[in-house]
Amino acid sequence: MDTPVVIERADARGRAARVLRGGADGNARLTAVTAAVLLVLLAAEGATIPLVGTHLTLHMVLGLALVPAVVLKLGTTGWRFARYYARDPQYVRRGPPHPFMRLLVAPLTVASTAVLFGTGILIVMLHPQRGLVVGLHKASFVVWFGAMAAHVLGHVLELPQHLRVDRERDLPGARLRSYLLAAALVAGAVVALAALPAVHHWVDWAATHHRHDG
After folding, report:
1. Burial class (CB in 10 A: 0-12, 13-18, 19+), 110
2. Helix (H) or strand (E) holding 181
């Protein structure tokens, strides 16, 4: 039989976990606010694509700055997925996404996101102007754009109920959620600034090779 001390310690750990995560509601709120921030940043990144010839540096820097926030978003959705299939009661009560979203859109979005950003990083590191990496980057963008459009349309109506001022007294874990999002944005800025010399070097290198090829 459990002693009162053991029960009390278990209850304390349970309360600490709830405070830390905020449960399924906290996960949904962090996912929503991260998604809203990403929509703005991705729109800015998308605006550079038609002018990528003259705004290549901005395009590459913004893409690198997005990586930590994208990782955070994948982390929150992956956590929901894991907790649901682990039969966590909070997540089970929220139910699974629509089968179309869960079985087709989500895998395509995750896979194309990984390839899109992964090849983008490789382009900065390896300096290819053409070839497999660049081809994968362009092809993954086409797949990603379609999957992301379906993903946004499938979840856009859920955003308003979660986009509110996040207060600790309303839902435990508010400070942690704010710190996680802020850390992702700051990390993105640090990554972009740290990579700026490499990006400039790539742009100069590409311009030189373009003149030689011409």
Report:
1. middle
2. helix 174-213
Q: Does residue 97 carry a pLDDT above 90?
A: no
Residues 201, 49 contacting (CB under 8 angstroms)? no
pLDDT, the chain, mean: 82
User: Cβ atoms within 10 A of the Cβ of 212, count?
Assistant: 7
User: Closest by alpha carbon to 64, among 130, 151, 124?
Assistant: 124
- Give the list of residues 6+ apart from residue 25 with CB closer than 8 angstroms, or none: 90, 171
- Helix, strand, coil distribution of the chain in percent, nearest 5: 85, 0, 15
Give the length of the chain.
214
51-55 mean pLDDT: 74
- Asked if pLDDT for residue 54 goes beyond 60, the answer is yes
Q: Is the dihedral of CA 129, 208, 190, 125 positive or negative?
A: positive
| Distance, CA of 208 to CA of 214 (rounded, Å) | 10
pLDDT at 6: 43
Q: Are 199 and 60 in contact (CB under 8 A)?
A: yes
In which residue are the tokens 């606010």 written? 33
Q: What is the CA radius of gyration of the chain?
A: 21
Which pLDDT belongs to residue 164?
A: 67
Confidence of residue 7 (pLDDT cuts 50, 70, 90): very low
- Residue 179 half-sphere exposure, CB side, CA atoms within 13 Å? 7
